[in-house]
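User: what does the whole thing look like in 3D?
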Amino acid sequence: MAARQFRRYQLLAFFLIVSSHFAGCSSSASSRYFGKTVAPKDNVLRYVSGSEPETLDPQLPDGQPEARIFMALYDGLVEYGPKDQQPIPAIAKSWEINPNLDEFIFHLRDNAKWSDGKPITANDFVYSMRRGFAPETISRTAVSLGGVIKYAEAFNAEKVFVKKGDKFLLESNLGEGGDSKTAPPFGPETEFHKSINSNRVTLDGDEKKRAKQLEADPKLKAAVGEAEFVPVKAEDIGVEAIDDYTLRIILRQSTPYFIGMLAHQYFRFVPRQAIEKYGKEWSRPEHIVTCGAFRLKEHRPYDRLVVEKDPNYWDAANVHLDHIEFYPLEENATIMNLYKAGSIDAFLNHTVLTSWIENVRAYKDEYMNFPEAATAYYSMNITKPPFDNPKVRRAFLLGLDREALSNFRKVTQPLYGKVPTGIFPAYDKAAAKVSEEMRGEKGIAPEAWSNRYKFNAEEGRKQLGEAGFSVQKNGDTFSCPGFPTDRASITYNTNENNKAIAEFVQAQWKQNLGVTVPLKTMEFKTYLPYFKSLQYEGFAQFLWSGDYMDPYTFLGLQYGEENEGGSGFHEPKYDKMLDDANRELDPEKRLEIMARAEEYLMEQLPMIPLTVNATNWMKKPYVKGMYPNPGTLIPWKFVYIERDPTKWDKDVANIMTTADPQFEKQLADLTITQKTAAK
Amino acid sequence: MLSFIIRRLLIIIPMALLVVTLTWGLIRIAPGNFYSGEKKLPAAVEANIRKKYGLDLPWWQQYGMMMSNIVRGDFGDSVKYQGQSVNEIIKRHLPYSATIGLLGYLLALAIGLTAGTIAALKQNSAFDYGSMSLAMLGLSVPNFVLGPILVLIFGFWLYWFPPARWGGIESLVLPVCTLAAIYAAYIARLTRAGMLEVMRSDFIRTARAKGLSEKTVLFRHAIRGGLIPVISFTGPALAALLAGTVVVEKVFAIPGLGNIFIQSVLNRDEPLTLGIVAFLSILIMVFNLIVDISYGFLDPRIRYE
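Assistant: Here's the predicted 3D structure for the full assembly of 984 residues, as C-alpha cells:
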C-alpha cells in the first residue's frame, strides 16, 4: 500500500515537472511571438469584433462592433481609409463639392452590384436615405449623423411645411436671414434642385405643440396666418438622383466634414428589393442582400458570423481574403487566451488586460499601441453647488496629476483639452497658433501659459481657498474640512478600468487638495439616465469615441441646449463660435475658430479632461494590410494573409510608415479616380 | 398518485405567471431602458420608439398585453435583437447549455456517487479522507477560478484542449469538467452522508440478519434510501445546469442560455428576460415534481395523498 502511494506521488511529481517543462518550452520556442503563431493555410481571418451585433441592418445600430461587420457586408459612397480613416472612394468613384460646402455631387461607378447581382444606382442611395430617415424605421443614428441633410430632420420628426395658396412659407419671408441662395448653380439644374434651393419654414406636426410654438412667436404666427400645413415627405429630403450614376446631396448648412461622415454605417446602401419584400426580416440570413466586399455565409448568434468574398463585388479582384470569421466575444481574458492559443488572428481595441500589458508590450511585432480618437473625461455637474463655482472646478482640475494617471493606466496619454491630441494634425497646428496668439493677447509668460491646465497642486489649493473652502496643512498632509463631500462623488459605470481610474483620482485629490470625494458605481444602463439627467453631484465619468474624423465630433458635445456633455453646460457664445467655424469656408481659418472655441470651453471648464485612449489591440504578424487607425475600423478588402515569414510585419510601432508595396498599390489604384476628379 | 401529479401540474401555471409578474415589476423598477445608449436620442425618435413598443400606454394596459401574450405562449420579439423572436432565441441557445449541462451532470453523478458510496462503505479510511478533502476543495474553489486554471494547464501547458469557444468534442472537455467539479463534490458528500445514515438503520440490520449478501444489501436496499438526499439536490440542479451556467459560459465563450439571460437583463431586453424566466421557472418546477415522484419509488415509506 505504502509503495503504491509512493508511486502515485512520484507520478504526480512527474506530471508537474513535465507540465512546467512544456510551459517553459512553449514560451521559449516562439518567444518572438505571443503564443502560437502559424499562418493559416487558407485566406481566412479570424477576428474578434466585440459584442453580438444587434441586427445586420446597418441603419439601425450605432455601435462599433456592428460597424466592423458592416464594413465587410456593405459599401457606402465612400469608405474609411485604412490608416487615417479619411474617406476613400467606394461606390462613388469621385465627388465634387460646391464652394459653400453644402452641396455634394457624387459620380457612382457603373459596375457596382448587390450580392444578388442587381446593379447599384444612385436611386438605391436615395431609397436608403428616405428609408433611414423615415420615422417608422426608428434609426437611432439617422438624425445625429444625417440631420444636416436638408429637411431630413423635419421628415424624421414628422414636421410640416406651411403652404399658402401654391407657395410655401420661406424663412426669408420671416426676414430672419437664411434666405434663398444666390450661389452659382452647381451641377445640372433640375426641378427638384430648384424647389429645394429655398429654405422653407417647418413647424411641429403635432397640432397642440404647433399651437404652442406659434403662441411663443407672434411674428411667426402672423406670417403663418390661415395657412395649410403639408407634412414633410420622404421625397422632400435633400438627396437627389440626377441620373442612374450621378447623385446630389444638399445640406441645410455648410458642413466641411460631411464626406468623412458618409463612411459611417448609417450611410451605407441598403437593398430596396429585400426590404420591400421581407420587411423587418430582410436582414435575416435567409433574406439578406448586401453590397460589400463580402457577403453573409453563416450567422450563429453569440458564436460566429462568417462572411465570404462576394464575386459580385465591383472590386472583387482586389479582395484578398476568402472568408472572415467574426467572433462576438466580450470577455477580455477569454479573447487573450484565444489569441495566445492561435485560435484567432486579431481582435478589437481596448482588449489587452491592464495586468497583461507589461508582458504583452514586449511583443513588438504584434501589440498595437496608437492614439485613438477616443477620450475620457470627468463631467462636472455645474448646476449644483459647489461645482457651479468655476474656481472649485479649476481647483479639482489642477489638483489632478494626469501624467501620473496616464502612467498608471499604461495605455493612455494625458489629455489637457477637449479634443484629443495627435489625431488631427492640422487641428493641432491651428490650436498651437491660436494658443500662442491668446498668450500674446493676455501677456502671460510662455511657461506659465503652457502649464495653465497642467498639474499644480499649490494653485489648486489656492483656488479652493478662494472659493471659500480653505485647505489646511497638517504636517505632510492636507485637509479641507469645509468642503461638502456629501455634495460630491465620482460616479462611474461598473467596470474594472473605470474603478481603477476613480480610485487613482480620489487618492490624488485627497493627497493634493485634502478632499476625499466618495466613489459611486452603477451598472451601465442605470448609469446612463443618472448621468444624462444630471442627477449626479460632482463628477461623472464620460467616455467619447469620435464618430468622424473632425475635431467637431468632440467640440460638438457641448453644443446646443440639449447637448451630450452631461454637465448642464450651455453657452450661446460657445454655440456661436462653433456655428461660425462651420460656416467658414477656409479650412485653416475654420480650425482656428474651433481652437478658440476649445480655449473658451476650457476656461468655462464643464469637465476635467483625463486621458486620450490608446488602440490597445493585437494582431498576428502574418496578417497584413491591417492598420491601427484611430477608430479601429478596418476596411477588410486591404487585409491579406502573408505566408512568407520574412515578409511578416515587424516592429509595428512603425507600421504606419513602413511601406507595403501590395497595400500601397491597392490604395493608390483605388484613390486615383477621386484625385483626378478633385483637382 | 395521479391526482397528486395533476394537482402539482396545475399549480405550475399560476406559479410561473406569478414569477413572470414579479420579474416584470423588477424590470420596470430598474432604471434605464433598452433604447438608451451613450448618444442622446432626438425627442421625436424616442417618442417613436415608445409608441412602437407600447411604452406610452398606462402600465396596467402594458401588463395586460404582456400577460395575454405570454398565456398564449408568445413572448414576442426581442427588443435588442430586432426581428428575432424570444422563442427562437431560447430554442437556439438552449442546446448549447443543455449539452454541457447534461454532460457535466452525468460526470458529476458518476464521480460523486462512486466516491460518496465508497467513502461511506470504507468510513475513516484513507480513501474516505482523501475523497472528502478533495470534495471540500471542489466546493471551495469557485468555477471562475477552476476554469482559468484548467485552461492554463490543458490549454497552454499541454495544448490538449482549446481554451475557449464552441466547436468539436475537444472544446467540451474543459467547460464540462469545470461545471462538474462543484456538483461532483456536493453529490459525493450527500451520498456519503445518506449512505452512512441508511447503513445504520433498522431495515439494513434486518436485511443482513435475513442472511442477504452484502452486495444485495447495498444495491437493493441501502442505495435507494441513501440516494434520497442526493435526488432532492440533483433534481433542481439538473434544471439549473440544463438552462445554462453563466460563469462557465462566460469563461469559455459558449453561446448558451445563461449568457443570453444575463445579457438580456443588462440590455433591458424585457421580452427576452421574461421569456427565459418563465421557461426556467417551469423547468425547475417540473424537475421538482419529478423529484417528488421519484421519492415514492425510492422509499416505500413515502405515500402521496
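In plain terms: DSSP finds 13 helices and no strands in chain B. Chain B touches chain A through 50 residues (CB under 8 Å).
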